Amino acid sequence: MTTILLSGAISMIVALIGTWPTIKILRGRKLGQQVRTGEHAPAHQSKSGTPTMGGIVIIIASLIGYTLGHVLTGDPMTASGVLVLSLMTGLGFVGFLDDFLKLFMRRSLGLRSGAKLLGQVIVAVIFAMLAIHFPDSYALTPASEHLSFTADFGVSIGAVLFVVWVLIMVSATSNGVNLTDGLDGLATGASILVLAAYVLIGNWQFRNACTTALTQNCYNVRDPLDAAVLATVVMGACFGFLWWNAPPAKIFMGDTGALALGGVLAGLAIVTRTDLLLLILAGLFAIETLSVVIQVTSFKTLRKRVFKMTPLHHHFELVGWAESTIVVRFWLVAAMFVALGLGIFYVGWFPS
Asked: Each residue of 297-337: pLDDT tens digit?
């Protein structure tokens, strides 16, 4: 518990203090968001030039918080924690390249979609392959070759299909957060809520681990407590960043932060054996992604648009909702999905 509190506090302080000089540096180099003419609601034109790539701060604060928290408390780092943090950093680097090209070219285009997808694939595949290694003294590895909901179920799907499954999860979550990151503070606040859920899940799994509590519904998870530490670290970094990212935002996280946060959510789901539960916990991100899928499918097949604009938050902008209203209401929706997911998780533990 000490490591959780200390690591989270360190990452939050680093992000809170470190974001301001980052804003000044990016402003000084004129590395700001470029908004295409006519993009989104008219109010978005005023955001052109706002510093982006703020996800760098979230990643650095998380790395510092996780490392110092373990060093100062003497708790050893675990394979699960290091792997998920590496997944987050690797995807953040892919996003950084995309952001850098956007800013360097002074236009709203970065990496080509194929190159961006390739980067995500490489990072996700390396994570998946490593995650089924590093067994502990109980032969538990950070991930298992089973599908999971509140715990593993069914038969093993094998290493190859497991890698494909991880690739799907990582791509879906990273792109889901990226699509949601269209209004000030929206993706950051929603990510905080999902991360808070994983703090609770990791703690609960640790206290009911099969290695220490041989009950009917114990959990076979390698490093649940360190998963909670990592979730707290990233949540703390997001809290510090949100101070500057809340409406009206002084800085955007960019693809650097969006891909990194999506990656850490997928990684936490995999190492806590809650793969499919993530679809509920991250329900807001799923809805935002689904709105794009519906819009594209409808337009290509029927030549009709279901929404005024997607992702969904832009539809409500064009309907006339104020940006702050959309952000707060979407946070509430995210909170309801998290509450539902946690309820299902805890109900699944109690004996029938």
From this structure: 998 888 889 889 989 999 999 999 999 999 999 999 999 99
Q: Tens of pLDDT along 173-226?
A: 999 999 999 899 999 999 999 999 999 999 999 998 887 766 677 889 999 999
CB neighbour list of residue 232: distance below 8 Å, 6 or more residues apart: 4, 5, 7, 8, 11, 195, 199
Give the pair of three-digit tokens for residue 150. 């509140």
Note if the bond before 135 is cis, omega within 30 degrees: no
Torsion of CA 39, 43, 46, 48, to 10 degrees: -30
Domain extents for the chain?
Answer: 2-139+152-349
- 60: tokens are 């650095």
How far apart (Å, rounded) are the C-alpha atoms in residues 83 and 181? 25
Contact assessment for residue 142 and residue 83, using Cβ atoms and an 8 Å cutoff: yes
How many Å apart are CA 124 and CA 122, to the nearest integer?
6
Distance (Å, rounded) from C-alpha 173 to C-alpha 176? 5
Cis bond upstream, residue 248 (ω within 30) = yes
Q: Label residues 11-29 b or e (16+ Cβ within 10 Å = b).
A: bbbbbbebbeebbeebeee
Ramachandran bin of 27, using left for φ above 0, alpha for ψ from -120 to 50, beta for the remaining angles: alpha
> Percent of the chain, pLDDT > 70?
91
140-166 core/surface letters (b: 16 or more CB in 10 A; e: else): bbbbbbbbbbbbbeeeeeeeeebbebb
CA dihedral of residues 339, 341, 346, 350 (deg, nearest 10): 130
Tell the residue number behind the tokens 């236009």, with chain if given. 107
Give the distance from CA 203 to its chain's centroid. 19
Distance CA 45, CA 58 (A): 26
For 101-122, give the secondary structure using H, E and C. Answer: HHHHHCCCCCCCHHHHHHHHHH
CB atoms inside a 10 Å sphere around CB 111: 19
- In this prediction the pTM is 0.93
